[in-house]
Amino acid sequence: MHTFIAATAPVLIVLAAAAPAQTRHDTRAPIDFGADHIELQDKANRGVLSGNVSVRQAEMTLNAARMTVIYTGQVIGGNPQVSRLDASGGVVVKRPGQTARSNYAVYDLNRRVITMLGNVTLTQGGNTVNGGRLTINLDTGRAVIDGSSVAGGGGAGTGTTTRAPSGRVTGTFSVPNRN
Questions:
Q1: For residue 9, is pLDDT > 50?
Q2: Rounded distance, CA 108 to CA 23, Å?
């Protein structure tokens, strides 16, 4: 294996889900969840899950210490319509053949995009890429990682970002055995 370090640029590494090929994620699938505790805040159109939070939608799982579920206020068939999930604390997103880890994540169900922030690691097959911010487009399977990260006192959803301390994306790409 060889180590690869990329120079700083607005978008540094793009993993287009080469192997195995990512299929389009079904963002209309029901979202199943489990947690140690849930607090429903109906007037604010949100629920706060805490303690060993686990969310599953189709073949994707999202685990974190805490998650805020934001819904639109619309209820269809007795179910509130979820528009966004904000996760924090040891966030792990698993999709077939791909695992991403970070401090924070925002799953925007309307845009069908997951944005992960802070100490990001993306593993796909034998390849690993580290950076400050990862964006996963669930329609295309395209994953983009760069050196940006959450500011020291900020948090997901604050809109405050700075360069990661190194401002770089690092990683390891596996190389096939050549005779």
A1: no
A2: 18
